[in-house]
Design a protein that fits this description.
The complex is a heterodimer of chains A (343) and B (312). Chain A has 343 residues and is mainly alpha-helical. Chain A is 76% helix and 1% strand. Chain A has 17 helices and two strands. The chains are: A mainly alpha (343), B mainly alpha (312).
Chain lengths: 343, 312
């Protein structure tokens, strides 16, 4: 099987999963009475007072499969319903909050990958040394730490005590400036918009507010990476070609960097899917802890106040993001390792 | 044959098993982390069992899991002789909550993992053993559950079902079982190929007998390792849901809930940033230690039980 056929096959396999995702979300809507469910179809404030009409228009009293049909059509048109907590359509609320989340993730991913791989390699190449023990301890701590608790401790030290860093997305002044007319929000990401507007202080203020959430998000996802990188590296180091490389007289550094690490990285790629899941969950907790107004914060607060369309919309969104992320991971893996697509 | 020779034969037959067991125990002893893990778990088990002695519920209380309160003042109080760990916002006694929260943590971890394991094992055995269309349908269903990050699906489920601790448990079971199904299915498909299965089928064993006597004992180890790691993970996820306000109600002895209510007080007072720190530090430390204990234990199990890592 060539790479192209593999990709096509994999995309076709994704379709039933996506249908399944919509079925599951739809099944959740069935837990509510038609008049509560109607919120999932509302698109503007006028319709809020015409629930009866909505029920008839979208066949909410009809058999389940009829309802599913009308619901899927709505979803495909981008209508995820009316969010009462945001007082606007769910999709619009998510579009407004997603850039902040993307900003957070953009800072966190490179940190996670670089530090994670570096520590994993160090740990494996110095097996049973102090570095190895410390790294393993760090990884297992990262596994066991309630992330919101870590966030609280960081706020308590770096905000309440030292006053260096702060929660929220921006300080009071910067916030007022960003939402004024003289500031154009190109991307919705404050660090980038600050530079684009020539207002460096906005970027600096945004960085001051983003450091703590980035730390928490990184700690959440790094443990898994360290662990898998370490065992994959140990596996690679025990292979015959490493003995061969050493026998050729290569330096330890060369053996590790050029021979072992490259091969050890391949299995780690499959992990990216899990990392994506960790990030999606991580942003929900992290943003809530730091009152960082991104899509995770929005969803968590919607859940607290039982804003059903928002929660279901967000779940659908994460489901789709996750399925697509896994597709990308699989394709990358097949591209790098021919055994997968040929086997 | 007299009893002595039979005993000797039995001993000779058991020798490899005993040798392996001794080896396993020596591995546990040599691994300091697993000793720490076991120590932590034993400590929490003791606290959970002794809860009525360590923190006797007041005679008027109807539910021992409801933390007694000393007034209704919202500002938490620092530790004092009457409240050794201080009080939470709303004057709930922190010490009492910690002690009874241990029972809640075990309940969450063990109920969720046991239920998910039972469902996952049954489904995985059926899917792996019979294969075909049943297998295909089940695997597609697990795919759908896997298409969501666990916490987010659990969050949606709890929001839809109603916010309380029982629904958190239910949601975690619903989200958790597919991973067991996958693992056991893979193991069953491997074991199914073995000659001894063929032999027992030729000997006329029923499917049920083959599954219970031959398949399960040979397929269950990886599952037990995952389960012990999951007890910690489930407690952590439940705590996160409690933090998001979806778990136990206020005043219930649940560590996650206790951190969640102290949220508004984490920044302290001007000039005294750590004055309320006990309200989140102590319950958080408990969650951390509890989860760490299970993770260390699961890790040790994996190194010790996994035959590919065992002798390294």
């Amino acid at each position: 099987m060539g790479l192209k056929t593999f990709v096509i096959r994999r995309i076709l396999l994704m379709i039933p999963t996506l249908i399944g995702v919509t079925l599951l979300i739809f099944a959740l809507t069935q837990l509510f009475t038609p008049s509560r469910r109607a919120m999932i179809y509302v698109t503007n404030t006028k319709e809020l007072n015409a629930i009866e009409e909505i029920i008839i228009k979208y066949h909410l009293n009809d058999p389940v499969y009829v309802q599913y049909y009308y619901w899927v059509i709505q979803v495909l048109q981008g209508n995820l319903g009316w969010s009462q907590t945001a007082n606007m359509p769910v999709l619009q609320a998510m579009m407004q909050t997603i850039p902040a989340t993307v900003e957070l993730v953009i800072f966190s991913i490179p940190l996670t990958i670089l530090i994670g791989i570096w520590l994993g390699v160090k740990s494996a190449s110095h097996r049973d040394s102090i570095i190895d023990h410390l790294t393993r301890f760090l990884a297992i701590t990262g596994y066991s730490l309630p992330s919101f608790w870590l966030g609280f401790m960081l706020i308590s030290v770096f905000y309440a005590w030292l006053g260096w860093l702060a929660p929220f997305r921006l300080g009071y002044e910067a916030n007022a400036f960003v939402y004024s007319k003289s500031f154009i929000r190109y991307t919705g990401m404050n660090t980038i918009d600050g530079i684009l507007n020539g207002q460096l202080w906005i970027s600096l203020d945004a960085i001051k507010h983003i450091i703590l959430p980035v730390i928490v998000l990184t700690v959440i996802s790094i443990a898994l990476l360290i662990r898998v990188m370490r065992s994959s590296m140990l596996e690679a180091l025990s292979k015959g070609y490493i003995t061969m490389a050493r026998a050729k007289g290569l330096s330890n550094q060369e053996v590790i960097n050029k021979h072992a690490r490259r091969n050890a990285l391949i299995p780690v790629i499959t992990l990216s899917g899990l990392l994506a899941a960790g990030l999606l969950t991580g942003v929900t907790i992290t943003e809530t802890v730091f009152n960082y107004y991104g899509v995770g914060y929005y969803a968590a607060h919607a859940a607290m106040r039982v804003d059903i369309p928002a929660v279901l919309g967000f779940s659908l969104f994460t489901g789709i993001v996750f399925v697509v992320a896994n597709l990308i991971v699989d394709v990358t893996y097949a591209y790098i390792d021919p055994r997968i697509r040929l086997g | 044959m007299n009893i002595k020779t039979r005993l000797r034969e039995f001993k000779a037959g058991m020798a490899p098993t005993i040798k392996e067991l001794k080896f396993t125990l020596s591995r546990i002893r040599k691994n300091p982390l697993s000793i720490i893990g076991i120590g932590i778990i034993i400590f929490f088990v003791a606290v959970a069992i002794l809860a009525p002695v360590l923190a006797p519920p007041p005679p008027t209380s109807r539910d021992p899991y409801m933390i007694p309160r000393d007034g209704f003042w919202s500002e938490p109080k620092p530790p004092s002789p009457t409240h050794p760990f201080g009080t939470l916002p709303g004057q709930y006694d922190l010490y009492y909550g910690i002690i009874w929260g241990t029972r809640t943590a075990f309940r969450i971890g063990i109920i969720v993992v046991a239920a998910a394991l039972a469902i996952g094992l049954t489904m995985g055995l059926i899917a792996g053993y019979y294969g075909g269309i049943i297998d295909e349908l089940m695997m597609r269903f697990t795919d759908i559950i896997f298409a969501f990050p666990g916490l987010i699906l659990a969050m949606a489920l709890v929001t839809a079902l109603g916010k309380n601790l029982d629904n958190v448990l239910l949601a975690l079971v619903l989200v958790g079982w597919p991973s067991y199904t996958r693992v056991i299915r893979g193991e069953v498909m491997r074991v199914k190929q073995e000659d001894y299965i063929e032999a027992s089928r030729a000997a006329g064993c029923s499917d049920l007998r083959i599954i219970t006597k031959h398949v399960i004992p040979n397929a269950i180890y990886p599952l037990l390792i995952i389960a012990s790691l999951d007890i910690g993970a489930m407690v952590l996820t439940a705590a996160a849901l409690s933090f998001l306000g979806l778990g136990a109600s206020q005043g219930y002895a649940d560590w996650g809930q206790m951190i969640s209510v102290s949220r508004d007080w984490i920044t302290g007072k001007p000039g005294q940033p750590f004055i309320y720190a006990h309200t989140f530090l102590i319950p958080g430390l408990c969650i951390f230690a509890f989860v760490l204990g299970w993770n260390l234990l699961g890790d040790a199990f994996r190194d010790i039980l996994d035959p590919t890592l065992r002798r390294r």
